[in-house]
Write a structure and sequence with these properties.
About 80% of the residues lie in helices and about 0% in strands. It has 5 helices and no strands.
C-alpha cells in the first residue's frame, strides 16, 4: 500500500522491524519532529502571539507520538521497548 496509509498500516500490523519502528521512526524522526514543533511554538510565544496557538503547535505531534507508542505496545515480548517508548512520550510531550 503506497503513501502514508501504507506507512501507518505497516507499523500498526507489526510489519516493520522493531529496530526501525523504535529507533528510526520514534527516537530519531519523532524526536526531530517534536523539537521542531517546540521551536516553532516557542517562536510563536516569543512573538507575543496567542499562547493557545503556541500550545496547539507544541502538541500537534501528539497523535503521531501516541500512534508510535501504541504500535510498539502491540508487539509481543518487547517489554523494555514498551517502557522506553512511554518514557520517550513523556519527555517529548513535556519538553
Amino acid at each position: 500500500m503506497p503513501g502514508s496509509a501504507g506507512f501507518f498500516t505497516r507499523r500498526w500490523r507489526g510489519e516493520v522491524p522493531m529496530r526501525v519502528l523504535f529507533w528510526r521512526d520514534m527516537v530519531t524522526v519523532g524526536t526531530v519532529f517534536n523539537l521542531l514543533a517546540t521551536a516553532v511554538a516557542l517562536a510563536i510565544a516569543l512573538a507575543d502571539e496567542a499562547i493557545v496557538l503556541a500550545a496547539v503547535v507544541h502538541f500537534a505531534p501528539l497523535p503521531y507520538n501516541l500512534f508510535l507508542v501504541a504500535s510498539v505496545w502491540r508487539w509481543p515480548g518487547v517489554g523494555a521497548y514498551r517502557w522506553a517508548s512511554v518514557a520517550w512520550l513523556v519527555v517529548v510531550t513535556l519538553v
